[in-house]
Design goal:
alpha/beta; Rossmann fold; 6 domains; 25 strands; elongated
């Protein structure tokens, strides 16, 4: 076994099992008071180095009472290797291979893997697995005979790509970061590392070949090596179970905050193995904790609690908005994405013109513009702003980007030139010009700029690319960066397992101590042969290694603080969980209480709602003050369907957003048919003209095609369809529907003359005036009027009848001119159906032959009109009086209604049950 020299600092040795070969290795606590300027501490991660630096500075300032002192030399091992490479590059002859950046390495792997991945979405995952396999090969110094065994298809794919990767490195005299330690070992000089002693601090597997080679090289250079770890404290530890798996996180936060208030100068930690997965839940718990104790915790809980799990840089709003804009410049976006962009505070106009842009989004939604590209959005903005801006005001541009700059999206050029173009277009878009950045956004922007600038490194290994390739490189680079804004050091740290290992605290709570977590199931890199992993005891080699690792980590946690809590959940949903058997020697905690208990903000609102004893049974709103009402027949229809719906929508103005859908909306299809027929009857005007035109079929088709040419141009402006062929399909569908309608429905009628088309008229009901727009009014041969309403859906006359008619629109029309109106009719216009549905006076000859769907009321036409007046006036009177009872006509009324959270009809039904 290797022996490590020790002078003063290496005291109280602690033995633990090595993960690879189950041999004991001596760890000694690190005494920061005994370190000098010639000592170097190498750690497995940056956080541990920063933690040691902070502790060392605190010792010098408080215990030693010094004003100046030598900085502690501590850094992650990877950073140290990079530093040695830079030093070696200055003196090496021959020259060292050029070190590739992580972005360049990823691009190199991508080049060799693109052709072997059938599904493009799987490429990034395979690149990451290959990089992890390459790192393991280098850390364990595996020869090709160990990683190129062809045991599986995955191994064969990796071996081929890895061989090409290595050939590229040799051909271009490159080196990747994974291969850097081996290069440093091979080129080591006696004066390269300026240190008297080196401490390998916090490493779990000291038999890893990379570390053993490092130790040998340092020793050969006359440098003393010590293996150090955390101070082992003999305190109190115990296990704590929670029936609900998620309850342990809430208890841990409450405990840590309570400890902090009791001892403000001490440090406490919560360890969560699946920290990244639990991050959002933890942030919500912290917000709930602040809401419960606003007098003790500031609004920004991050000054007290730091959740160390970083997030992808692309997940921060500043970065995601930037990526969304780049995506918009290259293709179509959903309307919801355009809404984010147009209201973004990071681009010009997002703040200053927020209200107008919000109205623009509502307008686009009403047009069913589900997908839009850059050009269409700007064209539609011109149309919208022209009708929504003061006439004397200058048109407000959406974004001030020149056509010349936009045209450069078609170029094929280097990443450096693309970044120059990006800077130019961001300046034109007013990027970050309307908002003062807070600390977090400022740091995010700085990291974004650094990441974008690093893309120029790819020009050395990539050919010029088009815009789509540039967008992909930017997206992947920003997603690959894990970022956490820097904050003041918080007294409570919520950390992952590897971050907390080798650290000491004043109090520690370890969550998720279930048997499924300690030890974890074996998870091996699928690209490396399993036999190789087992032979060398590498990560993923088998359950024995995971067991040793779990025992080592838990033993360290148990002695990392004077007070340690290991918590676990008994149930997660319906699944029963068990405590890790590794913790069975630790006694359970039986007297645990949480002094700072709290409930979520949702639970608090629910509790407060439960205190309300008032039955919300007020079915009467305020009376209508004006005799005129907006909404036309829709007001009466809503009052008939559900009085509350009418009051909420037309009196209170609660309207739902228009639902976007793929393809064409039924309302848009109906509008197109309406406009085609409106144009047709303005030109033809009567039955005889129709008959003559139908007799000359070619001429009929010519007229319809001419009308459709004009209406489709308007339809294209108002309705977005993709692919383009859908417009032609809709044109053909409309042509067939109208063509069949004219031949099979209109031609079967008795002679008539079209009197009015889309005419606005007024009707008075119980003193309330309603403005109606009638599709069409025909004059029949006897001088009577027939009112027609086109429908592209399935309708029937039953919807006009009863005390609460479902479709009161045509009965309302019958009251406009009751003396002359002798019939009302639905015109059902569909490709497979051309049919009249109507009620009429028995003396009216609406069609030449009897139609089973056109009938006379049983009580007679005059009595039916009188009944309609009585029914509709009663509905109008209820609306004016403010009747707003939650009494839907049937269940279908509630099926797609957006008002259920307001009317609470579901709660009423539940209470009755």
């Amino acid at each position: 076994m290797r022996q490590y020299k020790s002078q003063n600092i290496c005291i109280n040795p602690i033995v633990f099992l090595n993960l690879s070969v189950n041999r004991p290795v001596t760890h000694t606590p690190l005494d920061l008071t005994q370190l000098g300027p010639g000592d170097l501490i190498l750690t497995p991660n940056r956080r541990l180095s920063a933690w040691l630096q902070r502790d060392y500075d605190e010792i010098q300032r408080t215990r030693q009472r010094l004003k100046t002192w030598h900085a502690l030399r501590t850094q992650p091992l990877d950073s140290w290797f990079l530093e040695q490479y830079n030093r070696l590059a200055l003196v090496s002859n021959p020259a060292l291979p050029r070190l590739l950046s992580p972005l360049q390495v990823r691009s190199l792997w991508q080049k060799h893997l693109t052709d072997v991945v059938a599904e493009p979405n799987h490429l990034e995952g395979l690149i990451q697995l290959c990089q992890q396999a390459r790192t393991l090969i280098c850390r364990w110094h595996l020869p090709s005979t160990d990683w190129n065994l062809g045991e599986s298809e995955e191994n064969r794919v990796f071996a081929a790509a890895h061989q090409q990767f290595l050939e590229d490195l040799r051909e271009h005299h490159w080196i990747d970061p994974a291969g850097l330690p081996r290069l440093i070992h091979d080129r080591w000089g006696t004066d390269l590392c300026e240190a008297e002693r080196v401490f390998l601090h916090g490493f779990n597997d000291l038999q890893e070949p990379q570390l053993t080679h490092l130790e040998s090289a340092l020793t050969a250079a006359g440098i003393e090596v010590c293996v150090s770890g955390q101070h082992r404290q003999q305190g109190h530890s115990g296990t704590l179970s929670f029936v609900d798996y998620g309850a342990q996180f809430k208890a841990a936060l409450s405990w840590a905050v309570q400890q902090h208030f009791a001892w403000p100068l001490k440090r406490f930690a919560i360890v969560i193995p699946n920290l990244q997965h639990q991050r959002l839940h933890l942030e919500k718990l912290c917000a709930d904790l602040v809401a419960a104790y606003p007098d003790r915790l500031a609004d920004d809980w991050r000054h007290v609690i730091n959740i160390t799990a970083g997030q992808p840089l692309s997940s921060f709003s500043l970065c995601s908005h930037l990526l969304l804009m780049l995506k918009a410049l290259g293709g179509n976006l959903r309307l919801a994405e355009w809404e984010v962009l147009l209201k973004s505070p990071f681009f010009s106009g997002g703040v200053q013109h927020f209200q107008m842009r919000d109205a623009f989004i509502v307008w686009l939604r009403s047009k069913n513009r589900a997908f839009l590209n850059w050009s269409i959005v700007h064209e539609l903005w011109k149309v919208f702003s022209a009708s929504n801006s003061p006439t004397e005001a200058e048109p407000i541009p959406l974004f001030k980007v020149s056509d010349r700059t936009l045209a450069q999206r078609g170029q094929t050029t280097s990443l450096r030139n693309w970044l120059v173009w990006l800077n130019r277009i961001l300046a034109a878009l007013g990027w970050l010009q309307e908002r003062t950045l807070d600390s977090e956004s400022y740091q995010v922007n700085q990291r974004v700029q650094e990441t974008l600038q690093s893309l120029t490194e790819l020009d050395a290994i990539m050919d010029p690319i088009r815009y789509a390739g540039f967008l992909n490189e930017v997206s992947q680079a920003l997603k690959a960066v894990t970022f956490q804004p820097q904050t003041e050091t918080a007294p409570i740290q919520v950390m992952g397992v590897l971050e907390a290992a080798a650290m000491n605290f004043d109090g520690l709570w370890v969550c998720e101590c279930e048997s499924r977590q300690w030890p974890q199931p074996v998870s091996a890199n699928p690209l490396l042969p399993r036999s190789t992993l087992r032979r060398y005891g590498m990560p993923g080699s088998g359950p024995d290694r995971e067991l040793v690792y779990a025992r080592t980590i838990l033993d360290g946690f148990a002695q990392a603080a004077p007070q340690v809590v290991f918590s676990w959940g008994e149930y997660e949903g319906d699944s029963q969980l068990l405590m890790s058997p590794l913790l069975e020697p630790i006694a359970p905690i039986t007297d645990f209480t949480v002094g700072m208990d709290f409930v979520s903000q949702e639970e608090r609102r629910f509790q407060l709602a439960g205190l309300l004893s008032v039955d919300a049974g007020d079915d009467l709103g305020t009376e209508l003050q004006s005799q005129s009402s907006r909404g036309g027949s829709g007001v009466i229809q809503a009052q008939s369907l559900c009085p509350f719906k009418a009051y909420a929508e037309y009196r209170l103005g609660i309207r739902s957003e228009d639902n976007l859908q793929e393809g064409i909306k039924a309302s848009d299809r109906g509008s197109l048919v309406h406009r085609v027929l409106e144009s047709f009857w303005r030109e033809i005007t009567d039955y005889h003209g129709l008959a003559q035109l139908i007799a000359r079929d070619n001429e009929l088709q010519s007229v319809l095609n001419q009308i459709l040419d004009g209406e489709m141009a308007r339809f294209r402006q108002e309705t977005y369809l993709q692919p383009e062929a859908l417009y032609q399909l809709e044109r053909e569908r409309t042509f067939q529907s109208v063509y069949q309608w004219l031949r099979n429905a209109e031609l079967t009628r008795a002679p008539f003359k079209v009197e009015n088309i889309e005419k606005r008229q007024t009707v008075s009901l119980a003193g309330m005036e309603l403005t109606l727009t009638v599709d069409r009014i025909d004059v029949l041969e006897d001088g009577s009027r027939a009112i027609i309403d086109y429908k592209t859906g399935i309708k029937n006359t039953a919807s006009w009848l009863g005390p609460r008619p479902e479709e009161p629109q045509l009965p309302l029309y019958a009251l406009i001119n009751p003396e002359h109106t002798k019939g009302i009719y639905f015109g059902i216009i569909r490709p497979e159906k051309a049919e009249w549905q109507g009620l009429q006076d028995h003396n009216v000859q609406f069609t030449e032959r009897a139609a089973r769907t056109v009938k006379s009321p049983t009580a007679g036409w005059a009595d039916q009109v009188g009944e309609w007046r009585q029914t509709l006036e009663q509905l109008a009177l209820e609306y004016q009086q403010g009747v707003a009872s939650v009494t839907p006509l049937n269940n279908q009324v509630c099926q797609y209604c957006h008002l259920s959270p307001v009317c609470r009809i579901k709660e009423q039904h539940r209470d009755r049950e």
